[in-house]
Amino acid sequence: MGWPGKYFQRISSAKRNDFTIEILKKIKKRGIHTVIETSGFASKEQFLQIVPYVDLFLWDIKVTDQALHEKYTGVPLKPIIENLKLIDKAGAKTILRLIIIPGVNMENRHYEHIAALYSELVNVRGSELLPYHEYGNSKKDKLGLTDYVTFNQPTDQDIDCIGKVFNKMNSGITILRE
Fold it and tell me: Which long-range contacts (CB under 8 A, 24 or more apart) does 69-75 make?
């Protein structure tokens, strides 16, 4: 999806957050649309500081099972969902980016959790179904990291089926397409 404006990835350390806020303030003064792509894993304070300067958050959701989320990402799911709800209450617009990973989250229970979460959000603008990809694996190989999990990529048919599942659930989820 082509977004006119400035696009940032990640909010993590406080130092990086301060830098990002300063850049966003300058960009907003020029009337430029701002977008942050995030996993949602940062402090509540960092998100509250940045919300006034962001027009849209692209919020990645990988898996909604607590144990699986921590197993595959190394971080707990709870603060990610809490931060999403926090920025929603603060009026921030979001698009949920649902990363589709065969063998990990392609199950009805995951879709039900997504639908329930979506229904709680007032400022969500839609969802994108994003197939898992292996782009980062070559970087890991170059760094000599060999102990990482790889997954199969979903097919186009898998993605279409998931969209149909959400429609059948009458979840109200708007699936955005490129």
Answer: 72/104, 72/149, 73/39, 73/41, 75/39, 75/41
Scanning the chain, the segments in alpha helix (DSSP H) are: 14-29, 44-50, 66-73, 78-89, 108-120, 137-142, 156-168
Closest CA to 63 of 75, 51, 48, 46: 75
Between CA 108 and CA 22, with CA 123 as vertex, the angle to 5 degrees is 115
Per-residue confidence (pLDDT) for residue 121, from 0 to 100: 95
Q: What is the pLDDT of residue 32?
A: 92
**What residue type is assigned to position 162 of the chain?**
I
pLDDT recorded at residue 149? 73
Residue-averaged pLDDT of the chain? 85
In this prediction the pTM is: 0.84
